[in-house]
Write a sequence for this structure.
């Protein structure tokens, strides 16, 4: 009978859920639970000398860092393993096995890198480690290729060779084929491992089948507690352990695993879920990277059938790695492909007003206003991609899902569609989608844009719009019961940016009036963007935005605090770092990339303003994780009073602690009687020669900049006083612009150097916020 062992990869594969940001205390708890459960092999994380962290993470910078995390397993009988993705860690930096508590190295690699993988594998073996040899995406290997790699593996003689179901798409028959090939050709001294993902819920059944094959060699089954892992997740450790206890007389204790689910992983699941989803199922059925399906699902324009047709066009060589440009191209080709013949036209009276009713929830909130337009004979009303409660003269569809949902509820002679929709019967008109979906050379998939383009073609000079609210996260954005909701904040942010820019361009050809509140109404509704500059390469504290504060990276704490502001329309992190970008995307935090050339946070805001069009840009310091959201609202409120009378807005607070007056890290503020900024300095200004008790003011670093301010700031280099004081807002004063200050009572704690983290954690503990 085969010797079956469990390898638990909770701390490694589970790291995709939280960017490997496991607190040190949580790492110890998970390791102890695995040890107490008698799991045979424990994988503690990744080695990555480029992105690895020194603490509160299972993405380790070195073996030494990993050893520190494993001190609780000194007396454990379990093997300790760590993974290296080929290219992420220089094995020349690995110490010999006897210098580490790590027993084994798992080396993962893709088919295109086989030669380099074997070269690296031999070096790992020479250092004395058990080698777990893992060729990713086994299904990418033809039989002859699989046999070839097994032949080379026999010469290498690793501890374990793996069958890897990277996309969770391996059927039982396919799995048996690779199992038989490995069993009959792999040296019996080499263990056979199985690493699976659960996209099609096959991980457990395949693992059971492997255990029952009587392979007469050591078998290693990979799993994770609660199935934690990217996307659909992995085989559950507690399930396979319980099965092996009952069917193979093993003695695993599942209670410690259930305890750690209850104590830690259940709450993590609530924040960042994993498990079965349609997107993961589709990616598995097409044996492709899961991001392809997620991308198409988030477009929210096609049924699953349409998504399958697009995935069907993915070239085999592009399936394993996500290529955004490729899937954009395939989506674009599909969405523009005619599915109905052109017919008829929409004839509108040029002497009447045109009102478009989009699907935003403001349609219900302003129902009485719209009903008055419905009764007004001077209006022609067009419903967009739905049937609102307001009776419309016509209904215009560019979305197949919306058309299929509503067409039976509407008189056919009132329906106009574009020819990217497959129609079910003759309608009033079928229009050429390709002629209406472009603004300049940019394809914009939005029904309001297509309809406005059509009106422009009819030489209509003015249109009124309601219900084009813009997309907000974590709320219902529709005036009807919409079940297909996009929850990805980055996708929503991108759609808002595209729509905002497109509407401004269309205004050059047609007058657009917003009857209900909209993010895109530049005249009546000021749009405010909060920006958290997050620079990784800080001279005083590299990687500061990702430093752990009571188990949570600082950039996330800052984002969650700023999110509490009542007056920000959107909030985004601006960074030069791919590491920070990846973390934010995994946490569903909107993020935008800026260049590495920004000298200051304001320079970074200026770059953002070139990409995102808002009225005010609020600079929220990324190193102030306990920022009071009231300070943000105070800056925005001041701007809403004075608007463009001032180029920038800032706060100050009366200094209570006298020792702060002469501290050069605290910036002092001089204002006139209108609270306009006169000067800032690191000196204790103003100097007091009078007999009066002086009041000193310190700057609170929340800034509001108009678009003009950021254009001005980026138009020249540092001014003289700005250079002397190293205070960037002085650039505006030196150039003769007015800056409005406002007194506040709020304060914050900045993290400038590593020792400041303790101050913040102490503050959180005092407030009971840990």
């Amino acid at each position: 009978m085969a010797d079956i062992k469990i390898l638990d990869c909770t701390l490694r594969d589970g790291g995709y859920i939280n960017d490997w940001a496991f607190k040190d205390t949580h790492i110890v708890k998970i390791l102890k639970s695995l040890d107490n459960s008698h799991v045979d092999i424990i994988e503690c994380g990744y080695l990555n000398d480029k992105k690895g962290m020194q603490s509160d993470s299972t993405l380790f910078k070195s073996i030494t860092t990993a050893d520190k995390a494993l001190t609780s397993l000194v007396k454990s009988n379990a093997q300790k393993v760590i993974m290296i993705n080929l290219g992420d860690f220089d094995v020349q930096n690995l110490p010999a096995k006897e210098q580490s508590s790590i027993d084994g190295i798992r080396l993962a690699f893709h088919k295109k890198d086989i030669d380099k993988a074997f070269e690296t594998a031999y070096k790992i073996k020479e250092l004395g480690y058990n080698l777990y040899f893992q060729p990713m995406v086994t299904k990418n290997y033809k039989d002859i290729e699989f046999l070839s790699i097994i032949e080379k593996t026999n010469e290498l003689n690793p501890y374990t060779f793996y069958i890897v179901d990277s996309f969770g798409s391996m059927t039982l028959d396919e799995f048996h084929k690779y199992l038989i090939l490995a069993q009959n050709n792999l040296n019996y001294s080499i263990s056979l491992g199985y690493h699976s993902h659960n996209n099609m819920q096959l991980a457990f059944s395949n693992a059971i089948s492997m255990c029952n094959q009587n392979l007469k060699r050591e078998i290693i089954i990979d799993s994770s507690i609660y199935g934690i892992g990217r996307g659909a997740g992995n085989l559950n450790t507690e399930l396979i352990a319980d099965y092996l206890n009952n069917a193979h007389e093993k003695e695993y204790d599942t209670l410690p695993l259930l305890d750690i689910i209850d104590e830690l992983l259940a709450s993590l699941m609530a924040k960042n879920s994993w498990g079965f989803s349609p997107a993961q199922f589709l990616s598995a059925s097409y044996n492709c990277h899961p991001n392809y399906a997620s991308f198409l699902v988030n477009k929210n324009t096609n049924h699953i059938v349409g998504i399958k047709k697009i995935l069907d066009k993915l070239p085999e060589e592009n399936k394993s790695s996500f290529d955004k440009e490729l899937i954009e191209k395939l989506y674009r080709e599909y969405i523009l492909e005619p599915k109905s013949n052109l017919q008829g036209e929409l004839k509108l009276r040029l002497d009447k007003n045109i009102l478009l009713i989009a699907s935003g929830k403001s349609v219900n909130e302003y129902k009485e206003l719209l009903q008055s337009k419905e009764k007004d004979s001077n209006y022609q009303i067009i419903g967009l991609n739905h049937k609102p409660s307001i009776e419309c003269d016509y209904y215009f569809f560019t979305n197949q899902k919306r058309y299929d949902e509503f067409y039976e509820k509407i008189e056919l002679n009132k329906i106009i569609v574009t020819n990217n929709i497959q129609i079910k019967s003759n309608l009033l008109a079928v229009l050429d989608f390709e002629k209406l979906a472009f603004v300049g050379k940019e394809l914009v998939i939005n029904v309001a844009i297509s309809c406005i383009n059509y009106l422009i073609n009819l030489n209509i000079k003015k249109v009124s719009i309601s219900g084009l609210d813009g997309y907000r996260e974590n709320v219902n954005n529709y005036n009807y019961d919409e079940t297909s909701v996009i929850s990805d904040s980055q996708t929503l942010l991108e759609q808002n940016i595209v729509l905002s820019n497109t509407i401004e361009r269309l205004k050059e050809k047609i007058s657009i009036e917003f009857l209900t509140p909209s993010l895109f109404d530049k005249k009546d509704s000021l749009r405010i963007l909060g920006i958290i500059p997050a620079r990784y390469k800080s001279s005083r504290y590299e990687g500061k935005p990702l430093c752990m504060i009571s188990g949570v990276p600082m950039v996330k704490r800052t984002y969650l605090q700023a999110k509490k502001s009542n007056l920000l329309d959107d909030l985004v992190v601006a960074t030069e770092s791919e590491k920070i970008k990846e973390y934010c995307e995994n946490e569903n935090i909107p993020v935008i990339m800026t260049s590495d050339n920004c000298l200051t946070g304001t320079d970074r805001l200026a770059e953002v303003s070139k990409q995102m069009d808002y009225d005010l840009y609020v600079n929220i310091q990324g190193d102030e994780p306990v920022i009071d959201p009231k300070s943000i609202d105070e800056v925005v409120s001041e701007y809403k009073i004075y608007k463009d009378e001032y180029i920038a807005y800032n706060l100050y607070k009366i200094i209570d602690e006298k020792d702060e007056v002469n501290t050069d890290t605290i910036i002092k503020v001089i204002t006139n009687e209108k609270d306009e900024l006169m000067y800032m300095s690191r000196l204790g200004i103003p100097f007091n020669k009078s007999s009066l008790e002086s009041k000193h003011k310190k700057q609170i670093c929340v800034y509001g900049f108009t678009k003009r301010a950021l254009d001005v700031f980026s138009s020249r280099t540092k001014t003289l006083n700005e250079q002397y004081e190293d205070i960037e807002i002085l650039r505006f004063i030196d150039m003769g612009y007015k800056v409005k200050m406002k007194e506040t009572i709020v304060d914050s704690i900045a993290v400038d150097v590593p020792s400041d983290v303790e101050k913040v954690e102490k503050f959180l503990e005092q407030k009971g916020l840990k």
